[in-house]
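Hey, I was hoping to borrow your eyes for a little while. I've dropped the whole record in just underneath, so have a look:

——
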Amino acid sequence: MAMDTLLTKLLRIRYPILLAAMDLVADARLTVAVSEAGGFGILGGGYGDADWLERELALIAKMRGVREFPFGVGFITWSIRDRPALLDQALAAKPDAVWLSFGDPAPFVEKIKAAGALLICQVQTEAMARDAVSKGADIIVAQGTEAGGHGMSRGALTLVPAIVDAVGDRVPVALAGGVADGRGLAAALMLGAQGVTLGTRFYACEEAAGHPNAKALIVAASGEDTVRSTVFDILRKKVWPAQYTGRCLANEYTRKWVGREDELINQIGAESRGYLAARDRGDFNIAAVIAGECAGLIHDVRTAAEIMRSMTEQANELMTTHRLRIESMFLRESERQVVATA
């Protein structure tokens, strides 16, 4: 059963579910799998690897030559600020939307709109949402602190309705953070969102480009097994604005260094080399698995199509059941009123 919202109509999709633009994990295979299952796949351009982007866009173009489907491309905003050719490279592939995160979208809006693409902006506060809409955002992704990867401190339960109120009903809002099943999708819609964005749940799926060991750890984790810190940014030598920390699964390495970041910086040479080597060999006792609190709701590695189907079926069932309960409650109340006035 399709789920029609303003978001589905704008993106021409069957279900109000977006793939988060996870750096490198959201590759062409996963992007296409999500789109073909009725959601909106977004290629994770992240920090911007031109060779990777060229290869993955070519794969998408090849598959679109066989069958049409919508898709988007996502970037951390300062990657295209520093290397404008990356945006040109993405727009040449004719995406239906471009997702920008963690920076000012204004310098890129005109070029994105001229290429016929929608602009999706991920934000973490009401002020950011209003600013993005004023600069031309067509869709807002409201990211709660529950999400994996970089973000801020507001929880989605209060953030999403506040952003919905801030931007009005002309710009659809998608909830990001904490959603892994139909309960989360139904809750997002009840909060006023027009859909959801999934990162961790799609990380732990068959088509995702993540390491099998990382997927297994997500399946085994609980929500308490995640931590927000700057440790993995320090080790990757990625400098982020102070307000953003990153959520990942806690491991031996993060437990060792959280709270000792200054000491880690002083030893960065050897520690960074060891970290990157561990990541390459799939040793996640050292390397970070970037995942959110919803890991505790994920119990298997499934295909993207299976995830989409079970999530939408559960959400539809929950919303139908809730509507019937409300109708039944009103009916009983009206019966009591008749008796009282008899």
Remarks:
- The longest strand covers residues 41-46.
- The chain has 16 helices and eleven strands.
- The CA atoms of residues 143 and 261 lie 25 Å apart.
- The chain has a mean pLDDT of 91.
